[in-house]
Amino acid sequence: MMRPIAVVPLSATPHPNASRERLRADVLVVGDGVVGLATALAVARAGGSCRILGRTIAGAASAASAGLLAPSIGAADPPIRAFMRAARDRYPDWVHWLAERTGIEVTLSRLGIIEVGSRKLESDAPESEAMLLDDAALASLEPSLATASAVLYPHDGFVDNLRLLAAMREAVRCEWSIDVAEGRVAMIEPGRHACSVTTEDGRKQEGDTVVLAAGAWSALISGVPRPIPVEPVRGQMLQLAGCPLAHAVSSADAYLVPRGDSTIVGSTFERVGFDSSTTSNALDHLHRAATSLLPSLAGADVLSTWAGLRPLTPDGLPVLGRDPDFDRVVYACGHGKNGILLAPITAECVAAMVAGATLPIDIRAFDIMRFG
């Protein structure tokens, strides 16, 4: 039986090694979302010391996500698709390590994702990664779905992002080599031999390397060597009582993700700045899209509604790697709708960079200089 969890700020309970807080850390991680937490844990596992700087902000994408692990959905060049599938395939070991470390079991489904309304496979899709479903096969998998054509991506799936965040925050609290300093970073000062950051309340922190992982707020931090092409994009969501699905389902209008005895429905795509409020028109649209796919949910109670701000770049891909002029500044931001999916592999790459080790996978496609 899974233990109860609550997603709370990192500073809500004392760090078990608070008396050992360092004046200086090997790595300063700017941002306490899923990418920042994963990065700090990866650096610590590699033998480095780390300080996380962040503050819980309304609309932060990590807690607002549906937790989809969907590298096979949508168009992507083969190297990008390979990177995303490698990220997905790290998840079983990742959640197993978190459970051993913290005692928090993170729900992970690898049953596959069903994309409805599609009658063809991507030309680059290996046979093992995608299969067409005829009416009988679809009805066998998901009898409640009111659709006749679909593709199954059998290795994709979803994770419970709230339990994931809780486990990661607990793992951080248990790690002697990670300090947490609550506060939103306002400025970075990169140097040739060290870096420093200053929080909005004027506190200054120093470290050998700074990792920018501040999600949708990354572009607001001053002193970064070059402009960060990341903007917030709002995604509104709702949660319906009842869960007639075993698989996550994706359509042109919405996606549906099982969450215990409820169903998560998302999501809109809105450029509205840092407004994380919800609107009745968008939620009504999502509700209609959900019930057109699952008529059995037509009378279901709406349990909750919310919105998150995805950190989006112009090409929809993350910014990952060292700054070309200040190699003590590392970018790990702009993950868009794939922050949950890409967090463990992003962290692994950053930890390798910091340690001077060989990267586990090619990340040249995510270099910041692709934007000029």
Structural commentary:
This protein has 372 residues and is α+β, with helices and mostly antiparallel strands. It folds into two domains: 168 residues, FAD/NAD(P)-binding domain, CATH 3.50.50.60; 124 residues, D-Amino Acid Oxidase, Chain A, domain 2. It contains eight helices and 19 strands. The strands form three sheets. Strands 1, 2, 9, 10, 11, 12, 18 and 19 form an eight-stranded mixed sheet that branches. The chain has an eight-stranded mixed sheet with strand order 6-7-5-14-15-16-13-17. A three-stranded antiparallel sheet has the order 3-8-4. The N terminus is likely disordered.
Q: What is the domain tally?
A: 2
CATH architecture of the largest domain: 3-Layer(bba) Sandwich
Quote the distance from N terminus to C terminus: 51 Å
> Roughly how much helix do the residues carry, as a percent range?
10-25%
Question: Can you write the helix and strand succession as a string?
Answer: EHEHEHHEEEHEEHEEEEEEEEHEEEH
Strand content: 25-35%
What characteristic shape results from the CA principal axes?
A: globular
Oligomer: single chain
SS element count, helices? 8
CATH class label of the largest domain: Alpha Beta
Taking the sheet with the most strands, its summary is:
8 strands, mixed
- Strand element count: 19
CATH topology of the largest domain: FAD/NAD(P)-binding domain
What structural class do you assign from the helix and strand content? Answer: alpha+beta
CATH superfamily of the largest domain: FAD/NAD(P)-binding domain
